[in-house]
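S1.2 Input.
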Amino acid sequence: MILHVTRTALLALRRDRGALVLSFVLPIGFFSIFAAIFGQMHESTPQVKVIVADEDRSAASRELIGGLKNEASLVVVIRPEAKSRTAPPPAEYTAATAEAAVKAGDAPVALVIPPGFGQHPIAFGPEAGKNPILLLNDESDSIAPQIVMGMLQKAAMTSMPAAMAEEGMKTAEKYLGELTPQQRQVMQADLDELRRDELRRDELRKEQASGAPGASRSSTKSGADGFGMGPIRVEQRAVVGEDKKSPMISFYAAGIGVMFLLFTATGSAGALLDEAESGTLDRVLSTRVTMTKLLAGKLVFNTLLAFAQLTAMFLWGWAVFHLDFFSHLPGFAVMGLVTAFAVAAFGMLLASACKTRAQLGALSTLLILTMSAVGGSMFPRYFMPEAMQKAGLATINAWAIDGFTKVFWRNLPVSALWPQVAVLMAIGVVLFAVARRVARRWETV
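S1.3 Output.
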């Protein structure tokens, strides 16, 4: 009898394709996503985009920037991207424009090399850091500043050997006693040779920079060696998130909120399948209500339902976790409505494409969890490899989270939301149009 019960259960699972998919395809799919994101982290350091503003314009600052460009962990940018190929190259970053770029989310970190840095670029002991480099960062990314700090100290030790040797000699004389004339002569000859090598590298770097300056990335592999205290003093200042009471609450409210909006919208749209199965849909279509009007009405209802759910989540964040909600109402209203519209259209498409509730449940679970993992609802996208970050842009989650981040984290005006609004509106319109076409099968029954 036990074998008969087991056989009956296996046959039932075989007939229920939705359950079969959830049992095998979903775990494999999630394993593949997490393996792609975290599987090779021990072999390489995540690449970090860093803006560099050189206000010193000395040979030492150019050598340091050249050393940073040789680090595969960094993508060094010294000027904004040109608006078009024919447009003249923009001016290089300054301290003010670099700070504005970090606030706008163009990069998580910016380095400002101050005037006078080249006079004392390297120093040890109490004399270190007469002209410290300023590191500007966005507190939402806690990893990037650590990587940049480590790479900066490493670049200082590898790209400025003459300055390192000279300051090392001065420090040795100060604490160990003066060198003999012969020792000083040998050291001076070595320093002169190092300076000649640096001069040749500097001239070569200028020739390369005269072509197409901008972002640079080395093909060599390196890790985050040299992190911690080093020969260059760095002062760190957060320019985004420093005044937030609960800095990550808005991110989690948006990420988790969008994921559950997708489930809610899909479940609500599934009422269409119940109506088709019970015959209610045929009776409705026999009246003056067309399929287009019916789907449009359900789209409006599901949009309002999703927006109400999102509002409740953010209000809970305000009441319990001190989320700064009411000062961002205009931005929230815009992003909330377009996000609700996109997820409602997504739910309508799945409901129109599936034949039964079981199929809808299986397919929606697979797609929504995959979209949420890749799109950033489960963990920030900057943790992911570059390819996965680009893949996330194909999801509703990524665009919605980016928009809410602009509103609640970066305090940007509503006008800055136009890319996210445009994409989410386009997604909603396209998905609804496809859903309307797929729903023609009910009109021909």
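S1.4 Remarks. Strands lie at 48-54, 74-77, 109-113, 133-138, 234-240.
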